[in-house]
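User: Structure tokens for both sequences below?

Assistant:
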Amino acid sequence: MAYDYQQEKAGIFTETGLQMLLKIRDRADKLLKESGAFREQELHTTMSGDSWKMLACVDFLVEKGELKRIHDGGVRQMDVYVRGSE
């Protein structure tokens, strides 16, 4: 079974999902303040938990405009993120 954002998105709105979303948002904000951009793999290095839920949290932040993904066609871990337009 492959990652499916629409299927995983519902898990964000649980207590544990919201806790993960806040941790990921805070980590992303810290990385953006430090360097202005980060790779997805740096976002997850200090996190633990369900990797698909982590991906869904990142996709949710992109969907809401808090992050902007720069994808070069390679593996997702190497995607770069910058601050979105909010």
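Moving on to the next sequence.
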Amino acid sequence: MRTYSFFIHHAGSSTPTLEFELAGDEVSLRSLAEHALSESPNRLAVEIREEDQLVFSLDRNGATWPGQRVATPGLA
């Protein structure tokens, strides 16, 4: 399992909420990100980072933006 930082952006706030999550693969990580967004209608997007590297971003419409990190086995 690896630790990821979720920066959750909200409507009406310029400061994202920070949450930490554990995941062992990309499917689990995306599922956790989708769940984080679904917890409130005011949540607009989430940035998922491992250490200082952006893994991907996800918005409420399901659009995903990949990060610029190098792919690692099990987490492409």
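User: Anything stand out in the second?

Assistant: The longest helix spans residues 26-38.
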